[in-house]
Amino acid sequence: MNISRAINLANFIVIIGLLFILTGCSSVFDKHIEYEYIEPDHYPVLKAIGYAPLSAQPGKNDTQKMLMAVKVSKLEAYRELTEQVYGQNISSTMTVKGAIAQNDGLQGQVNGVIRGAKVVKSYSAGDTYVTELELDMKRVHDLYITQVKPRKIKRVTYY
Fold this sequence. Notes:
Elements: H1 2-29, E1 31-36, E2 45-53, H2 62-86, E3 89-97, E4 100-109, E5 118-125, E6 128-136, H3 137-148, E7 152-158
Antiparallel strand pairs: 1-7, 2-6, 3-4, 5-6
C-alpha cells in the first residue's frame, strides 16, 4: 500500500507540474497589443520637369506631334521623379588594351512606382513641350498608410 500511495503522489505532482507549465504558457496567448502609427516630422515636396521636342515626334500633322510630345514630356517628368525617389542604377564597362581605352560604355536604369504626383504645368515653349510635376511626400505618406498601415507597438497588456 505504501508503493501505490507513492505512485499516486508522484502522479499528482506530475499533474500539478504540468498544470503550472500550461498555465505559464497561456499568458503568452492572453494579451492585448495596442499599436501606434508612426508619422515623419517633415514632408518634402519634390519637383520634376520633362521636355520633349515637338518637331522630332512621329505623326502625320502638327496636332499628332503635339499629342506625342505631351505624352513624352510627361513620361520624362515621371522618370525624373522616379530618379529622385528611388535613385538611378548605373552600369559601366570599359575595355583597356595596352594602356589605351578601346571601348567605353555607360548605361543608366530607373525603376520604381510613383503615386500621388500631380501635373503643375504643361505648356509649349518654342519647339519644345514642357511638363512640370510635383510630388508632395505628405500625400505619398497618406496613400502608403491606407495600403500598408505601418505601426509600432505602443503597449502590451497581459491577462
